[in-house]
């Protein structure tokens, strides 16, 4: 599904993101992010239902997002419906983040 999300972004005219970027937070914890733009610092995470449904997984997602935001990244989480049912809206949301972060 991440491949479908990437194609949605590119088809929507967004710049090519860095895929599976390795990120080390201030505590030394290593994270991987699904899609990243480094100028400006924007992260998009695809939250698939299989990997983000248990309480432990949800807590981990919150820790990861907090670590990213703490260092200045703007983070957007998307799900299957964002990609399949609302691609134009999702591309616009990402584009807005990329534009706002650069301003």
Automatic annotation (TrEMBL):
It comes from Mycolicibacterium chitae. Pfam families: DUF559. Gene3D superfamilies: VSR Endonuclease. InterPro entries: DUF559 (IPR007569), Restrct_endonuc-II-like (IPR011335). This is Protein of uncharacterized function (DUF559). Residues 32-95 form the DUF559 domain.
